[in-house]
Amino acid sequence: MFFKDIIGQTEAKQRLIKEIQEGKIPHARLFCGGQGTGKLPLAIAYARYLSCEHPGETDACGNCPNCIKYNKLAHPDLHFAFPVIKLKNKDTVSDDFLTLWREMLQNTPYFNMNIWLEQMGAENQQAQIFVKESEEIVRKLSLKPSQGGYKIMIIWLPEKMNAECSNKLLKLLEEPPAKTVFLLVSEEPDALLATIQSRTQRFKIPGIGDNDIATTLVREYGIEEKAAVNIAHRSEGNWIKALETIHTNEESKLFFELFVSLMRLAYQRKIREMKQWSETLAAMGRERQKHFLAYAQRMIRENFVCNFSNSSIVYLNEEEQNFANRFAPYINERNVINIMDELSEAERHIGQNVNARMVFFDFALKMIVLLVQK
Question: Are residues 359 and 269 in the same domain?
């Protein structure tokens, strides 16, 4: 991962490069920001630049022995710690999943915990950084740098460290070995121990600019420019969300049609057709039913916001916006909370395996009354 590979974040790149060029390198840096902003890729690019034998003005050289090792994330002085699932009959550490981790970073450097859990095949397990990891970190950093430069420890989502692991790591952060750099990459920095926070230098990563997301979508994915601009706006600075929008367009189109159909049928009070609509939803799997209800909540929220005539706070695609131009007045301060409550209740019931036909038909009937409150 080079600085040039990171989407947007021009100011952050310049600041990181400048501090290395000036020799102002903190021993522990806390990269923090929302999902999909490029925190982890930035940390890796920073580590590469710090390790590069012939760094340029804006990036690592890419040709020196250290850079070549970084191409496979296999530099002997680059170490990773990250949340993992518990393996049977074993004190699990990050190295048990290191091959999978490297593959993930090389194929999809922008990812979140859910994607990583799926990659590990976690099923219902939760991931964390276990206490054994602190011992591994101490062991790795006690060794001399094999290449004579910095030893770098990148910890992804340090807020997932259990309490014992956090406390053991604290001493190392207080008195790190010479030429050792910690790069902590966090989405919830305030969940870390206050003593760890105080021993790191925060580096806030903002959301990616809409123009940077749109340009990348056009260049890398062949998205039509107008659609790319719309996706970028709806992504709210999150590249992961932008990619999810591309991949779920087909499902979103189906959900849009189902949503529009219900609103029209409810307004026209076509009970028989509403019952058929409910059966269509009931025939879908539970997960898709929950996805539809989440989509419906978003549509209600966005249509309500449309009434404020401020396009910068509305996140709808062109087709949804065309519908909202006519439908938005029906979602107002008199009914929006009640509609959202009904959708939340329906989502809860679906999660509890209540009969889906009853859930969706009941919600559809309630919409008849709620839409009248214009």
Answer: yes
